[in-house]
Sequence to fold (156 residues):
Amino acid sequence: MEIKVKPSRPNVQLLSANNPQPQHRMKTLNCYVLLFCWKAICCNSCQLTNITIAVEREECEFCITVNATWCSGYCFTRDPVYKYPPVSSVQQTCTFKEVVYETVKIPGCGDHPESFYSYPVATECHCETCDTDSTDCTVRGLGPSYCSFSQNGSNQ
Fold:
């Protein structure tokens, strides 16, 4: 009696014209990965962001916080390793393209004109060279939540 052993073959899905689904999934995955990399590397993420800022008037000795929108994110920029004096390197920053001003009344001032405070609210953002005439271009300022007075009107 002769026994014949049939070699077993694992159940493997072959990539062929008869079975295009694995290839299709791989192409779709590659497209998503390329799109993600392109968005992360080539595109700016400069956009409107909700922030809370402190608003105060010295005359009123009172501080309140208000919600506003401002620009936040990063812009594509280059910083050369070797600095040559004749060639200046201009850095781009995420800044406002357009602003509107909103006004709030600060408590504790009565009905005097100084009881009203107007503050800028960004409505559109873009990447541009920092304009020192209208923007604080320092690495770190006081921050939007800094207040000289507490919300109950006493010095901090």
User: Anything to note?
Assistant: Helices lie at 21-42. Residues 23 and 96 are 45 Å apart (CA to CA). The first helix runs from residue 21 to 42.
